[in-house]
Design a protein that fits this description.
CATH topology of the largest domain in chain A: TIM Barrel
Largest sheet of chain B: 5 strands, parallel
Strand content of chain B: 15-25%
Number of domains of chain A: 2
CATH class of the largest domain in chain A: Alpha Beta
Order of helices and strands of chain B: EHEHEHEHEHH
Number of strands of chain B: 5
Number of domains of chain B: 1
Distance between the termini of chain A: 55 Å
Shape of chain A: globular
Strand content of chain A: 5-15%
Strand order of the largest sheet of chain A: 1-10-9-8-7
Helix content of chain B: 40-55%
CATH topology of chain B: Rossmann fold
Number of helices of chain A: 22
CATH class of chain B: Alpha Beta
CATH architecture of the largest domain in chain A: Alpha-Beta Barrel
Distance between the termini of chain B: 16 Å
Shape of chain B: globular
Oligomer: heterodimer
Structural class of chain B: alpha/beta
Strand order of the largest sheet of chain B: 2-1-3-4-5
Radius of gyration of chain B: 14 Å
């Protein structure tokens, strides 16, 4: 992009400046660190110049917002027409309680619904399952039957909102319930808009293969079946949100998060192609979910690199023709693992910096964590501040007024290139192993992530990394915790309701639909239509998952 | 040769927050201990059986699901039943409320390490308990 003679001049000047001026300065004022590195170990220079991006080709590598390879954003005018979607995760206790919090967040200015389920629900266990004890409604909302889903979305016009259902294992059942309540209210499933996470690969990469007896292949069949159904019959629904966030929270660095997430995307594309779908039917339906961690510029570079990489992978590897297949649509959550317990107010500032990185990186939607999330689910006050953080960035800071405002910075462009290069190295290694599914089965991903997590912790303990309030600038304080508490009452009521439903429903009908599902499984049918029919009989999540597990896993 | 301290790192509950358990396992190993990590989603029965079979000296329970007041007392009960009460029982994760901490200590948990605890503190605590530091 630069004149050769001018580059030569810059290079000569740089050599002089570095060897004479900087060197002398450092002799008087030594640097505070032996080396300056990003979280992924990318070494940082003290200043960047055109020399560092000498091979950058504006039209091919950056271009304009909404133009391939989308480095500068996926919409022509980015946030000038509409800010990103403020999408806070909600879900705790019984469905009605979550419903209350949803309307609270709605009043606070949230623009999308984001529902997280409790652990028993994720695993497809009924609330009265012995191993669910103590976990009901703890980390999300409890769903046993379609009745709970009806309570959760009571008064919410399902065909007018965009809903994100954050669930993995039991995703097909929960989606079936969502479709079924819409149908019961006289709406058509093709008009439903939203996202279901439904990504077993990254979930397994974080939690699986630890002697749990759960195998990955059946989980992938369920996920792919669900995605296949949505692609064919629900044009406004995104049936796969590939979750880099979990991998990041488990300890991965930025490059690993990027590489492992895109590698998972590649794996799903391959599986869906096997279903006979066209790449341009699949591509537009895949979305992603990343974390926003502390290292500000590296995070921005990661988001920019992610868009460029995915566009090129879809175009060059999979020969997509529709540009909607090439654009990387993604949600970001600030990283919970960066939050600390002492001086919890400092978490507001961490979250602000992370949110800013996500926005400067061009995210489509954003969840900001609440300051008390190092201990528990957020209190109302903390959760309001989290929404306010995004609103201040949107309305007061002015950062949303120019598309990709950091594009063209020598440093940002060089770092974007570097992050991309390192991520491709991982992706190649994974593809050599037979793809992401194999890499997860071999526990390669798990080991890489665990190593990074340990390094992160060791760096904090050796004070190589400073965490303000944790290993530096500590104070003696008595923590005044005003935590959001979930009583056991939720659990007791949830179980009572479930047991009442089991007694009052038509159990013969339930038996019938369960055996239909079992037949469908063996015939290799897509299970979604059967599940939609089944949930309407008030079959429980445990019964349905039980059948799927028995016959699949 | 003196036997290494054997530690079971146990992860009860249905959640996937394994980062802390894994990091602590690696740190204890690097500190010269023998570590057996149970993996995720272990029932109290599985945990106590593992402790018995592996003949451990210390059981470390990592819990971040909020269900500690249900699961830890159950584990302690089983520990008692199996005659393992002489083992060092420690816990970590998101146990932060003073009344929970006191209640669990009352029940037999020797120490509770909250979010952000340096691994060195855990290592020192275990070593100290087994008299390693005193003998140096």
């Amino acid at each position: 992009m630069y004149d050769k003679e001018k580059l030569k001049e810059i290079k000569n000047n740089e050599v002089f400046w570095k060897n004479i001026i900087v060197q002398k300065w450092i002799e008087r004022f030594p640097e505070i660190k032996n080396e300056f590195k990003t979280s992924s170990g990318i070494i940082l220079k003290n200043v960047y110049t055109p020399i560092d991006i000498v091979n950058l080709d504006y039209s091919n590598d950056l271009s304009f917002p909404a133009i391939y390879p989308f480095t500068r954003g996926i919409y022509p005018n980015m946030y000038r027409g509409r800010i990103w979607t403020i999408r806070q995760v909600t879900g705790f206790g019984k469905a009605e309680e979550t419903s209350e919090r949803l309307s609270f967040l709605d009043k606070a200015g949230q623009t999308g619904l984001n529902i997280v389920f409790d652990m028993p629900t994720h695993h497809g266990l009924d609330s009265d399952d012995p191993i669910a004890e103590g976990e009901v409604g703890r980390e999300g909302v409890a769903i046993d039957t379609i009745k709970d889903m009806e309570d959760l979305f009571d008064g919410i016009p399902l065909d007018q909102v965009s809903t994100s259902l954050i669930t993995i294992g039991a995703a097909p059942i929960l989606l079936a319930m969502y479709i079924a309540i819409a149908e019961k209210r006289g709406m058509k499933s093709e008009n439903l808009a939203g996202t279901i996470q439904n990504d077993s690969i990254t979930a397994f990469a974080v939690t699986g293969a630890e002697g749990s007896g759960i195998r990955l292949d059946p989980l992938i069949r369920l996920a792919v079946d669900t995605a296949d159904y949505c692609i064919r019959y629900m044009p406004k629904w995104y049936p796969l949100s590939i979750v880099g966030y979990h991998i990041r929270e488990a300890g991965a660095n930025a490059v690993q998060e990027l590489a492992f997430t895109l590698a998972s995307g590649i794996a799903y594309v391959k599986e869906l192609l096997k279903k006979g779908l066209d790449i341009d039917e699949i591509g537009p339906k895949i979305t992603f979910f990343f974390g926003a961690h502390n290292n500000f510029f590296e995070e921005i570079a990661k988001f920019r690199a992610a868009r460029r990489m995915w566009a090129r992978i879809m175009k060059k590897w999979f020969h997509a023709k529709d540009i909607r297949s090439m654009v990387l649509k993604y949600h970001v959550q600030t990283c919970g693992c960066t939050l600390i317990a002492p001086q919890p107010e400092t978490n507001i500032i961490r979250t602000t910096i992370q949110a800013l990185a996500a926005i400067l990186g061009g995210t489509n939607s954003l969840h900001t964590n609440s300051m008390d999330e190092a201990f528990a689910l957020p209190s109302e006050k903390a959760s309001r501040i989290a929404v306010r953080t995004q609103q201040i960035i949107a309305h007061e800071s002015g950062v949303a007024e120019v598309c990709d405002p950091l594009g063209g910075s020598y440093f940002i462009e060089a770092l974007t290139n570097e992050v991309e290069k390192e991520a491709y190295k991982y992706i190649e290694r994974i593809e050599d192993m037979g793809g992401m599914i194999e890499a997860v089965k071999k526990e390669y991903i798990q080991n890489e992530v665990a190593k990074s997590a340990y390094k992160y912790q060791k760096d904090i303990e050796s004070e190589k990394s400073i965490v303000v309030g944790l290993n530096k600038y500590q104070i003696d304080e008595k923590l005044e915790l005003n935590l959001f508490k979930i009583g056991r009452n939720y659990e007791i009521r949830q179980i009572e309701n479930l047991q009442k439903i089991r007694k009052t429903r038509d159990n013969l009908k339930v038996k019938e639909v369960l055996s239909e599902i079992s037949d469908g499984l063996h015939k290799g049918e897509n299970l979604m239509p059967l599940l939609i029919k089944a949930v309407k009989t008030y079959a429980t999540i445990g019964e349905l998952m039980g059948i799927l597990k028995k016959d699949l896993i | 040769m003196k036997r290494k301290i054997r530690v079971l790192i146990a992860k009860p509950g249905l959640d996937g927050h394994a980062r802390g358990a894994k990091v602590v396992s690696m740190a204890l190993r690097d500190a010269g201990m023998e570590v057996i990590y149970t993996g995720l989603q272990q029932t109290p029965e599985q945990i106590v059986n593992a402790a018995l079979q592996e003949d451990v000296d210390c059981i470390g329970i990592s819990i971040l699901s909020g269900a500690h007041m249900t699961l830890i007392p159950r584990i302690l009960e089983l520990i008692k039943k199996q005659g393992l009460s002489d083992k060092l029982i420690i816990a970590g994760g998101t146990i932060v409320l003073e009344k929970d901490i006191e209640a669990l200590k009352e029940l037999g948990v020797n120490e509770i390490f909250g979010p952000g605890t340096p691994t060195k503190e855990i290592i020192d605590h275990i070593n100290h308990y087994f008299g390693i530091i005193n003998k140096l």
